[in-house]
Amino acid sequence: LLVEAVLSGVLMGLVYALVALGLTIIFGVMDLVNFAHGEFLMLSMYCSFWFYSLLGIDPMLTVPVTTVFGGLLGVATYYLLIKHVLHGPLLAQLFSTFGLLLFLQNLALFLWGPDFRLVNHGWLVDRVWQLAGLRIDAALLGAGVTSLLGFGLTYLLINHTRVGTALLATSIDAEGARYMGIDTDRMNALAWAIGGACVGIAGALLANFFYITPTTGLVFVMLAFTTVALGGFGSVAGALWAGVIIGVIQTLGGLYIGSQFKFPLVYSLYFIIMLVRPRGLFGWR
Amino acid sequence: MTGQGRRGVTRRDFLKASSGLVAGGAVLSVGAPAVRAAGPVRLGALLPLSGSLASTGDLLKRAMELAVELVNTPTPGVDLKFAKWAGIPSLGGAKVEVIWGDTRAQPAVGADLATRMIADQKVVGLIGAFNSDVTAAASTVAERMKTPMINEASSSPALTKRGLKYFFRVSPHEQTFVNEAFLFLEGLKQGKAQGVGAIPKDKLERVAIATETTEIGRLLAELYQQAAAKYGYRVVATIRFKLGSPDLTSEMKELKASNPDVLLTLAGISDAILLTKTMKREGVAPKVYYMDNYGASDPNYVRTLGRDADHIVLRSVFSDKLLGKPVTQQVNELYKKKASVPLTDLSARAFSAMQAWLEVLNRAGSTEPDVIVKAAEGLTIPKDETIMPWDGINFVTTEFGDTHQNGLGRGLILQYQNGQGEVMWPFELATAKLVYPFGFAG
After folding, report:
1. Is residue B31 predicted with pLDDT exceeding 70?
2. Residue A137: beta bridge partners?
3. According to the model, what pLDDT value does residue A87 have?
4. Using CA atoms, how far apart are residues A18 and A201, in angstroms rounded to an integer?
5. Each residue's pLDDT tens digit, A252-264
6. Which of A198-202, B108-112, B129-133, B324-328 has the lowest mean pLDDT?
7. Percent of chain A with pLDDT over 90
C-alpha cells in the first residue's frame, strides 16, 4: 500500500509539476503571474476532449495538438494583451491576467455550458496494470511519464539551445539582453508559448482521467501556484521537485494522517518553506 | 371664467370628500391589508450559478422560472391552481418578477446578495439558497431585515432548529434522509427489497463514510455515525475530502483497505464524478454504494459517467418513475421542454418552493412581511396539488424541534439502472429489482 501510494503521489505530482512549469517559465522571464493559467489548462482539456469526441482520436494522441494549441494560446495572450500592459502599472498587469481568467472561464461557459464532460473510452482510460504486485493506473502512469518527457524537452530547449540561452539571458536581465542584441519581445512571446505548450500537454493528459467543465482549471491552479512558490519562482528544476513533493505529501498525508489534512499539510509545508527560505527550494533570487 | 362658475372649496366639501376617502380606504383595507399591486411583486432568488455547482444551480433556476412563467401567463392543461391566475389574484393580478443572484456557493456572497436585494431592490421575500451554509447566512440577514424566505432544498437540520420567524423550508432534511437510509439497509437484512433475499447481518455491518469538508459534509458524517450506532453498524473508515478535489487516490486506497460493506457518501457533482471514477480505478467495491443526492442527482452525473453511474444507490425526494399524479407529468413535460432534461429531486423541490411562495403571496394578499409569515404558517398545499411524492406542503413545528418545516414531506431511495433512477425505497413503491451487491456496470 505504501509503495503504491508513493508511486501514485509521484505520478500525480509530475502532472502538477507540468502545470506549474508553464507558470514558472512565464514568471521567470517576465516577472508576471498568469492568473489565467488554469483556464489555459481547461481550454486544452476541452481541445483534447473535442478531438476525442468528434473525431474519435485518443487523448494521448492529442498531446501534439494540445501542445500547439496551448503554445498558440500563450502567444496570442502575449501579443493581444500582455504586451500592451507590460509597461503599465503593476496593478494593470495583475488585473489583465485576472480579467483573462474571468473572460476565458465565461467564454467556456457560454460555448459549452456548465455541463461536465469525461473521456469514457481510450487506450489508458480506466485501465489498471499489475506490475510486480503493484496496482498501477495506466492513465496516471501515462500522464506521469509524458510529463517527465515534457520536462526533459523544456530543459533541453532552455539549457542546450541558443534560443534557450537567449531566454535565460532575458530572464536574468532583460535590459542587458536587449543591449546584447536579443529581441526580448520575441523572448517574452517564446516564454508564453512554452508556458502555454506545457499546460497544453498537461490538459491532454488530465483529460484521460479528470472531468472537464469551465471551472476545472481552478481545481489545479491553486496547487500550481503553491508548486511554483515552493520550488522557487522561475526555476524549472524547482517546479519538478516541488510538484513531486506535493504529490507525495498529499497522498501519504491523506493515507496515514487523515484525508482532511492532506491539503493543510501541503500548505503548511509551503508556509514553513516561505518562512525559512523565501525564495523557494530552488529559487535563485 | 366667471366668479359665479368658480367656487372655492368649502370646509363642508373638504370634510365630505375626506370622510368618503377615509371610509373607502377602510373598506379596502379590511379586504386586503397593505395591498401594493401597482407593479410586479419581486422575489429574490439566491442560487449557485457559477463555479462547480453552476450546472446544478442552472437546473434549479429553470424550475423556479417555470413556476413563475405559469403564474404570470395562464397555461392550459396544467392542473395547478396558480397556472390559471395570470398574476397573483389577491394582489390585483400583480405579476411576479424574480431577481436572480449568484451566490457562487459562498455564504458571504449569499448574505451580501440578500442584503442588497432586500435593501436596494425591494424584494418582498427570498427563495434559495441551495447550499446549507449559504442558506444559513442569507436567512440570518433575512431575519434581521424582517423579510420572509422559503428554502427549496438545503438539507441541514440546523436551519429549521433556530426558531427563526421569517424562514420556511419545503424539503425534508438530512436527519430524516439518514434515518431512511438505515431503514433501507435494515429492510435489506429483512429481505424486503425486490429481487434480493434477506442479507445476513454480518454481511452488512461494516460502514465507511466519505463526505466533503464543508459544513453539510461534517454534519452528514456525524448523522451517519449516530445512525450507525443506533442501528448497530460498525464504522470502519471516516474520510473527509476537499470540495473540488484534484485527486482522491489516497482516499480510495484508505477506503479499500478498510473493506466496507456499505459506503455512505456526500459529494457535490464534480467530486461525485471524481469519487466514482477513482473508486472504479482503485477497485473499491462495497456491497452498497450510497450517495446523498447532492451531486449524484444532478443529471450531469449520469450523463457524464454513463454506465459507471449504474447501481449506485442515492437518496432522493422525487422520481419521474412515480408520475402517478397528472400534475407531475404535466410539469415534467413543460420542464423537459425548458431544460432539456426531466425534473430531478432538486429541480422538483425548487419548483415546489416557488409554488409555495406563489400560494403564500395569494393567501397573504399583501406584501407586508408579517402578513406573509402568517399566510405561510396557515398554508396547506394538498397532496394532489404538489408535484412531489409527498402528502403536501404544510409548515409546522415538528417532533424533532424544527419550526416552519414542511411536515408532509419524505424521502425516496433510488438506484441508477441503465441511467434511470429506479425507486427502491419505500419498498412498497419499488419500480425495479435491486441490483445487489454493487458493481460497476461499465
Report:
1. no
2. A128
3. 83
4. 8
5. 988 888 888 888 9
6. B324-328
7. 64
The complex's ipTM works out to 0.88
Share of chain B above pLDDT 70, in %: 91
Strand pairing of B405-406 and B96-102?
Answer: unpaired
Buried b (16+ CB within 10 A) or exposed e, B41-52: bbbbbbbbbbbb
A4 and chain B: CB distance < 8 Å anywhere?
Answer: yes
* pTM beyond cutoff 0.90: no
Distance between CA atoms of residues A194 and A280, nearest Å: 22
Contact B132, B159 (CB under 8 A): yes
| Mean pLDDT computed over A196-215 | 95
Contact list in B for residue A118 (CB cut-off 8 A) is 273, 277, 304-305
Is residue A53's pLDDT more than 80? yes
Instruction: Enumerate residues 139 to 168 of chain A having a beta carbon within 8 A of any beta carbon in chain B.
Output: 139-140
B/e letters for B348-376, b = 16+ CB within 10 Å, e = fewer, are: bbbbbbbbbbbbbbbbbbbbbbebbbebb
Distance (Å) from the alpha carbon of B281 to chain A's nearest alpha carbon = 6
Please check the confidence at residue B36 and state whether its pLDDT lies above 80: no
How confident is the model over A45-58, as a mean pLDDT? 96
pLDDT higher than threshold 70 for residue A152: yes
Grid cell for residue B407: 411536515
Q: Which pLDDT belongs to residue B51?
A: 82
Cα–Cα distances in angstroms (integers) from residue A45 to residues A216, B96, B189, in the given order: 9, 42, 45
**DSSP at B199:** P
φ/ψ (deg, to 5) at A173: -155, 95
* Grid cell of B51 as nine digits: 463555479
- Closest alpha carbon within chain B to A264: B242
Q: Is the dihedral of CA B88, B339, B393, B142 positive or negative?
A: negative
* CA distances, B211 to each of A18, A177, B263 (Å): 30, 54, 10
Residue B272 has pLDDT above 50, yes or no: yes
Residues of B with CB under 8 A from a CB of A: 50-52, 54-55, 58, 213, 239-242, 244-247, 249-251, 253-254, 257, 269-270, 273-274, 277, 280-283, 300-301, 303-306, 308, 442
Beta carbons of B172 and B406 less than 8 angstroms apart: yes
List the single residue in B with minimal CA-CA distance to A254. B250
Among A10, A211, A215, the residue to mutate for chain B (most B Cβ within 10 A): A211
Q: What Cα–Cα distance (Å) separates residue B429 from each residue in A10, A145, B194?
A: 49, 52, 10
A116 CB near a chain B CB, below 8 Å? yes
Predicted confidence at residue A91, as pLDDT, reads 86
